Amino acid sequence: MQFVDEFRDQAAVIAAIQAIRLRASRRWTLMEVCGGQTHALLKSGIADELEDLIELLHGPGCPVCVTSTERIDAAIGLAQRPGVLLTAFGDMFRVPGSQMSLAGARSAGAAVRPVYSPLDALAWAQRNPRQEVVFFAVGFETTAPATALAVLQAERLGIKNFSVLAAHVCVQPAMEAILGAPDNRVQAFLAAGHVCAVVGYRQYAELAARYHTPIVVTGFEPYDLTIGLLACIEQLESGRCDVQNCYPRVVAEDGNPSALRIVSQVYETCDRDWRGFGLLRGGGLRIRPDYAEFDAERRFAMPAEKAEEPGRCRGGEVLSGRIKPTACAAFGIECTPDRPLGAPMVSSEGACAAYFHYRGLRLPHSAAPRQVQS
Amino acid sequence: MSEREPIRGSAAEGLACPVLNDGAGERITLAHGEGGRAMRRLIADFIRPRLGVAAPQTLEDAVVLPAIVGPPVLTTDGFVVSPWKFPGGNIGCLAVYGAVNDLAVRGAEPIALTLALILEEGLPLTVLGEVLDSAASAARRCGVRVVAGDTKVTPRGATDGIFIVTTALGRLVEPSPGGAGLIRPGDRLLVSGPIGRHGVAVLAAREQLGFCPEPLSDCGPLLPAMNALRAALAIPRAVRDATRGGVAAVLHEWAADCGHTLAIDERQIPVSSEVRGVCELLGLEPLHLANEGTMVLAVPPEDCDAVLQNLREQPGMEKAALIGEVRPRDVVPVVVRRALGREQPLIEPVGAPLPRIC
After folding, report:
1. Could you read off the pLDDT of B255-302 as tens digits, one per residue?
2. ipTM for the assembly
3. B356 touches chain A (CB under 8 A)
4. With an 8 Å Cβ cutoff, are B335 and A367 in contact?
5. Are A145 and A256 in contact (CB under 8 A)?
6. Which residues contact B153 (CB under 8 A, 6 or more apart)?
7. What gap in Å lies between CA A314 and CA A369, rounded to an integer?
8. Neighbours of B229 (CB within 10 A)
9. Region of poorest pLDDT, from A262-271, A325-334, A338-347, B50-59
10. Residues of A with CB below 8 A from B304's CB?
């Protein structure tokens, strides 16, 4: 498959791993920002292969995971109102709120429907004019253009029964919070390739210089990841702290100007509560007053309820790179993908889920791979 | 109610019972499930002719069958697929193949089938006709007769168009696969064709994902392949059609039954480019997706080549492949070797696969 197979080529990946081995004079601590990268690094075995030379701290780039319990409760509250259909990406369904998940709410009679795109939610609203259709807009800058587009389409088509519960988050304030923390251990970042596809990477230059930390824009296939890691190691070994693009087939320096234009037309930055970080200045996007009629928060008077994060879940520390998922006492025992205590165990980008699926039951050496032969 | 008063069906359709005709064609009414004349005529004039030669002269509530030689094998299955029609089949052939495949993989030859229809009020008769035609054609292909049936109609909204429950009776023909309990270390694991096709076809049809080319379901019979294996005396230790939960679910059930570790190699698993493309886009695992005409086999190592060769001679199974082997029990019940050569636990699917955020 074009644009996939060549970036999974085993020989190319092994060559890049060997190049890292040759270049690294010591063990470095890197953070991959995006949860998709965490999963790919563990699933491909690259994280294990380089464990002696690279300590990977897993970053906050799982929008499902950083969405606060309050926000999930608010979505469930909307879904439980008569006449409201709540739509969301499938990832959100099993994420626990303070009382239940969206999937649980649906079992109990709430109207919840998974969609593949906010435009599907809009089409649903168009077909069912008597139903209030709300799209639970979770995601980084990657998904914000699609929800902005849905709002613009709704306005253009005069659809009055569609609104968005915005839970969008912006990744750079979280990177800044990590670097600025007194106990920060991150020496270089693999920046999230798909976020950069939208926002570009020009804005990282100041951050890289201020904290003297290399930032390497990196993709998601095994070869992309090894090349990103190699670039980080090269910079660290030579004392540089540049912003470097190792995902040029997808990312341009200025991102995607059309996408950015519609995002800034519909959204404005706001402070947002992140799980694991607390209130992040400029850490979220909310709908501008011009589009208030499409803002579910304004449309449905929603009580501002404070929800406690689940006490036994250390997901916040995992998300900020302070602990590894396996350091949590509940990991794999009290907390599994079937019965998650927190979002990182159930999201397809969550670090706990990645450890559970790909590493939590690490194979003993006796089970070393053998060739299957007939 | 006056607008929707049941009227007589058109003579052309030959259906002399009350049906709704709202201009969009004739539809099922609650009367069709209430045991009176409407139901009798629906069965006699519409259902029975469509089941064609596969149906006997009388469609009884209970039927007496000739005595059979050998142990009887019985299976039952409910079908609620949405949408009712998908590229590569519809709920009618699915209901027949689903039940007959369950018999086939257990080593049984099908004898008779019952078909219970649960219809939603307002279902277009054209839909019912298409479903029945497809079921009849599948039954003919499997050489099995529909011997009894039932029809119920639920009020609008209580059923999603059409549900079908099939029960299939067969007789065990020796030699037959012994079952997962007999699987032992050294056995080879095979699949009969590219995996995940039904799951992707239904997903794409349900969500109208608009892929081109449209992914096709593998919905089809496993009986010819099982007959060929028996004729060649290449008898697997265990066979299972990898329906809901996909190949991963079968492997997990087998690992629990036999107490060994099942190890597969991702690079050897056949996956069509359509399925792969959909899985890449939506973040799905082909091993977790449903199949409806693809089976997993565990075979003794010495029979592996013969089984593979026989499978590959079957139409649609040209891509049958060896995907792994059985090992003494390790800490992990099912492992998959990923593309870069590393082994990882293969997780059991949790519920239905859901689309990813990005």
Report:
1. 999 999 999 999 999 999 999 988 888 888 999 999 999 999 999 999
2. 0.78
3. yes
4. yes
5. yes
6. B28, B29, B30, B31, B32, B33, B34, B118, B119, B120, B121
7. 33
8. 24
9. B50-59
10. 374
